[in-house]
Design brief:
Layout (H helix, E strand, L loop, with lengths): L2 H4 L3 H6 L8 E8 L6 H17 L3 E9 L2 H7 L7 H12 L5 E3 L2 H4 L2 H4 L4 H14 L1 H7 L4 E8 H4 L15 E5 L4 H5 L2 H12 L4 H4 L3 E5 L8 H9 L11 H9 L5
Parallel strand pairs: 1-2, 1-4, 2-3, 4-5, 5-6
């Protein structure tokens, strides 16, 4: 399977047609999207605003990289959302966006049938592809292209898929939203730093310079777990957490949990 089949660049090429000489930046995030919800898109918007205002970056694209069927099956052995359903719902949320897109290399490449790729493998694959793509090089016209890995705080604190190891050379943006009562009570950045310092004590002195902490003032849980829980309990509040097109898709396809 060709990279071109899995990494669409149409939106990227259009958005690179800008006059800014600031670093051109792609945001990349991964997840199961079981199912996708509004906050998955909100974190892109929050990160874009922050990085353009505070770091003088020009954000030209956000890539959503859904996990492979193998990984989702392992986590949810009794799953009810098929791979095609997950992809279809993500596309419904990104089709009308001028700068957020979906890349399915992680989901569909032959490599993922052998093993579940670590985060650094996903970002390196994307970087290698873009580095040699003639359309991208022409659109950049000599400017620098950076890829920043975007994590929600909950994902950043997980050690699965090798965690934040081997991401040297790449900036990491962490959206600080509270994930439990402990993180809510105190300064969220301090909470995150203390946790990460403990998890990555051998490389923390290097890692801490790669991380950008971005505050998010949400005060209630927005997660796929919450959507599934509400759906399972026939609580219509789940609709408030999902895009109208995703709500429509779940209802029309009678997806249950």
């Amino acid at each position: 399977m060709n990279f071109e089949d899995n990494i669409p660049i149409n939106k990227l090429i259009v958005n690179l047609q800008n006059d800014s000489q600031n670093p051109q930046v792609i945001l990349l995030t991964c997840g199961n999207y079981y199912p996708i919800h509004e906050f998955h898109i909100e974190i892109f918007e929050i990160a874009k605003k922050y990085l353009e205002e505070k770091n003088n970056y020009k954000i030209v694209l956000g890539y959503i990289s859904p996990s492979s069927e193998r990984k989702v099956n392992k986590k949810y052995p009794d799953k009810t959302i098929s791979f095609n359903d997950r992809i279809e719902m993500i596309q419904k949320m990104t089709n009308k966006s001028s700068w957020i897109d979906i890349t399915t290399w992680e989901s569909l490449s032959p490599e993922t049938k052998i093993d579940i790729p670590d985060y650094h493998q996903i970002i390196k694959n994307l970087s290698d592809f873009l580095d040699i793509n003639d359309q991208v090089k022409q659109a950049l016209n000599g400017r620098k292209l950076k890829i920043i890995y975007l994590f929600g705080l909950d994902e950043a604190l997980k050690e699965e898929r090798n965690g934040l190891n081997d991401l040297d050379g790449y900036e990491i943006a962490i959206i600080e939203r509270y994930i439990n009562s402990e993180s809510k009570k105190e300064n969220c950045e301090k909470y995150c730093k203390d946790k990460l310092k403990e998890m990555y004590k051998d490389i923390w002195e290097i890692l801490k310079h790669q991380i950008i902490f971005i505050n998010c003032d949400d005060n209630f849980e927005k997660s796929s777990r919450k959507v599934r829980e509400l759906l399972k309990n026939n609580d219509e509040k789940w609709e408030d957490l999902c895009h109208p097109e995703v709500v429509k898709y779940i209802k029309e396809n009678k997806i249950k949990f």
